[in-house]
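Incident log, structure service

09:12 report received: a user says their structure output differs between two submissions of the same chain.
09:20 pulled the input from the user's history:
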Amino acid sequence: MEPLTRPSSLASRIAEAIRADIGAGRFVAGARLPAESALAAAFGVSRPIVREAIAQLKADGVLVTRKGSGAYVSDTPGGQVWRLRGDAAGADGGPADGPTLTHLFELRVMAETACAELAARRRTDADLAAIATALAAMRAQR
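09:34 re-ran on a clean worker, output below:
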């Protein structure tokens, strides 16, 4: 038996539909989205589901909300975060649709190694003294 794949939540599907509308230019940066009640009617869902979708898009940096005014497309509607998958395969068993934890760790290894190399090349005697002081303080805390 193959493990069953879990379908996307309704809120996630609505968030993706709104994201697609933004990508298609229906809503441009700074544009106000329709009211929650109008979105709920358009998608045939309840307002809490729309609210959850908006919260997802807000967390991703796609939307900003203004109390009492509504949700607006951010100046960076592409968002500024990665949604990570725990597995490397997509829902259909093919490649994942986005970055995975493995991709994130690969990126970190590359970036952190390069940063450590630069720090080592640019270090000064004062930097080495500060490191020695910090190490001694850590050892004293044992």
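09:41 both user submissions now match this output. Likely a transient worker issue. Closing.
09:42 reviewer note: The CA atoms of residues 90 and 117 lie 35 Å apart. Residues 90-94 have pLDDT under 50 and may be disordered.
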